[in-house]
C-alpha cells in the first residue's frame, strides 16, 4: 500500500483499472493483433523450411531461422532504443508496422514460389531488426497512456493477453497451415501489421522526437553512438538498474539453456521423445495463464522490488529440481510453476524500469536490458548442450538453475531498495499532480498528463534578486510559483503595469507555446520556491488536445496585452524555434 489516498492508502490495482484509459486500449489492441500474426507466420515459416528437406536439413534451417531472430537483438538492440527516443514514437510505431507488413508480404511471395530459404531467413532477420526499435518504443509509450498507479495493471494485462496468445497461437497456426498454403498464412500476418498500424495511429502523442534545437541553449544534439552509450551510463550509475539488468540477464540465460535441456529431459527422462518439449512448454504456458488473474495486483504492489527478486528465483529454481525428476506429472508441475513465476517476473521488471527512468532515455535503457537478455539467452543456448555432453544432463540442469537462483538472490537487496525509492517517488508524484490539478491552468489536463509534468519537474529554492527568466532568451522550462514573490519587467515600448507573481501563478508558457523568445524578465524579489517543469514535456502534454491548452490562453492574452499588444490576438501554438 502507498500513501496519498483517502485514509493514507492506495489499494493495489487489478486489470479493470487499466481498461479505463482509452488511448492505452488502442495500443493494447495493436499489440494483440500483431502478436497473433507473428505466431501464425512462425508456424507457416517452419512448415516451408522443413517441407521438402531432409530431417537433418530441415532442423538446421529452423535453427538458422531462430538465430536470425536473435542475433539482431544482440547487435542492434542498444541502438534501437536510441531511435525510439530520437523519433516521434507514434509515427515510428506506425512506420515500423507498415515496414514489417511489407517484409511479410515479400516472405509470402518467396514461399508461394518455393523460393530461396536463405532469402526467407534474411527476411526473418529484417523483421527482427525492426523489432529492436519497435519494442523499446512500445515500452516507452505505456507511461504516456496510463496513470502511475495503473502502470503495473496495464503491463499485467498486456503480458497476460500475450501469454494467452502464446498458448493458443501455435495451435491455431498449425490448424491454418493444415488447410491452406503457408504463403497465405504469412500473408495474413502481413495484414495484421496493417491493422496494427491503423490502431496505433489513434493513440496520440507518446513522446520521442527530440528536436535538434535545445531549449535555452545552442548545444548540438548528441550523435547516435553517444546517445546509445548514455543508455548504458544511466544503468551503470544506478545500483537498482544494474540489479534489474543482472536479473534479466540470468533469467534469460536460464531460459536459453532450458530450451535445449528440456528437449533432453523430454526424450531421455520422461520418454516423450524430443517433440515432448512442446508439452513442457505448453505446461509453462498454462502456468502463465493460471497466474495471469493475479498479476495486476502483484504488479501494483508497493513491494515490487521483492516481487521481482522472488519471481526471478522462482523462475530459475525449477531447473534445479528438474535434475531429480523422472516422473512426468512432477515435470509438468515444475513447468507450471516456472511459467507462473515467469509472467510475474516479466511484469515486475518492466514496471520497475518504467518507473525508474525518465521518459527521454527510457527507450535506450530498455534496449540495454534487452541486449543483455539476448546475450544471456544466446550464451545459455550455446553452453547447455556442451554441459550436457560433458557433465551429464542432471548436473547441467542443476548448474544452470543454481546459477540463476544465486544471481537472483544477489540482486534482491538492490531491487528492494529500488522498489522502496520508487514507491516514495510515486507518492510524491501523486501529491504533486493533485496540487497541479487544483490550479486553473491545468484544469484541462487529465491525470496522465499531470503525472507526466510531475515526473519531469524539479523543485527549486531561489534567492532574492535571482533572474529566473531573461527577456529575449530562448524558452526552456515552465515555472509554477510555490511560495514567494517575483517581479515581471520588460523593455517593450508602451508596456503597461505588470502585477507581481505569487503562489500558484504560472509563467514561462508564452515562449514555450508560441515558440518565441522570452517576452519579459522575471526576477525574485524575495526568497521563492518554484516548480520547474521540463519545457518539452509541457509542450507535448499541452498540445496533445485542445482542451489542455485552452486554460493557458486567457493568461497569455492578458500578459501579452500589457507587454506586446500586437501579439495578443494570435495565440495559436507554433513550433519551437530552431
Q: How confident is the prediction overall: mean pLDDT?
A: 81
Radius of gyration: 27 Å
The topology string of helices and strands comes to HHHHHHHHHHHHHHHEEEEEHEEHH
- Report on the biggest sheet: 4 strands, antiparallel
Terminal residue distance: 46 Å
Please count the beta strands (DSSP E, at least 2 residues each): 7
Low-confidence blocks of residues: 1-12, 211-221
Structural class: mainly alpha
Assembly category: single chain
Strand order of the largest sheet: 1-7-3-5
Helix count from the secondary structure assignment: 18
Shape, principal axes of CA atoms: elongated
User: What fraction of residues sit in β-strands?
Assistant: 5-15%
Helix content: 55-70%
Report what the structure shows.
It is a single chain. By secondary structure, the protein is mostly helical. The protein is built from 18 helices and 7 strands. The chain has helices at 15-19, 22-50, 55-86, 89-112, 117-141, 151-179, 182-200, 224-236, 239-269, 277-299, 304-322, 328-356, 362-391, 393-437, 447-456, 509-514, 535-542, 546-563, and strands at residues 458-462, 467-469, 477-483, 486-489, 506-507, 521-524, 528-534. The strands form 2 sheets. The protein has a 4-stranded antiparallel beta sheet with strand order 1-7-3-5. The protein has a 3-stranded antiparallel beta sheet with strand order 2-6-4, with no helix packed on it. Helix 11 (304-322) runs antiparallel to helix 14 and helix 15 (447-456) runs antiparallel to helix 17. The longest helix is centred in the C-terminal third of the chain and has 45 residues, at 393-437. It is elongated and about 90 Å long. The chain starts with 14 loop residues before the first helix and ends in a 15-residue tail after the last helix. Residues 1-12 and 211-221 have low confidence and may be disordered.
